[in-house]
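User: I've been trying to design a sequence by hand for this structure and keep getting stuck. Would you show me what you'd pick, starting by listing the structure so we're on the same page?

Assistant: Good idea, let's start from the same input. This is the structure you sent:
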């Protein structure tokens, strides 16, 4: 750590040794008295008096995190159909089941659209609770004061 040290110097003008003229009297009887002026000059310089060392230390703490986990499975069910339709059947939702109808064109005397199969996607959710051990880290600052004059540390820690 550095501190500013101040030196106070007393400084006089260069002509301070010259003696002022003696008191003069003017014709109107007023006296003229010379005046001497002094000036103070302040100078500063840096001086190392002490220091500080900062170190960081990482601490690891084990914690248990208990959070619910939701998983979703999709089951595929194929349902054969085999009936004729006039236009494509759009994808539809029946509760938690998404129904996708597959089509094929069949050449007869005329072209007709026949629904051949439905693919049903059934969503099932399961909720469970799980615990995991995780390591969380944090930093701590250790501060040591250094005494420059003694040449070592005095062991202060904050």
């Amino acid at each position: 750590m550095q501190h500013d040290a101040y030196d106070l110097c007393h400084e006089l003008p260069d002509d301070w040794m010259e003696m002022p003229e003696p008191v003069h009297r003017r014709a109107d009887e007023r006296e003229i008295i010379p005046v001497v002026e002094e000036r103070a000059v302040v100078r500063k310089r840096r001086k190392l008096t002490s220091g500080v060392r900062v170190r960081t230390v990482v601490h690891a703490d084990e914690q248990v995190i208990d959070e619910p986990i939701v998983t979703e499975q999709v089951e595929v069910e194929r349902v054969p159909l085999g009936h004729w339709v006039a236009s494509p059947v759009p994808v539809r939702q029946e509760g938690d089941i998404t129904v996708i109808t597959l089509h094929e064109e069949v050449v007869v005397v005329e072209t007709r659209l026949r629904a051949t199969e439905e693919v049903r996607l059934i969503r099932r959710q399961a909720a469970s609770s799980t615990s995991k051990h995780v390591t969380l880290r944090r930093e701590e600052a250790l501060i040591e004061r250094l005494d420059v004059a003694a040449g070592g540390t005095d062991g202060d820690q904050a």
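That's my pick for every position. To get oriented when you compare it with your attempt: The first strand starts at residue 2 and ends at 11. DSSP finds no helices and nine strands in the chain.
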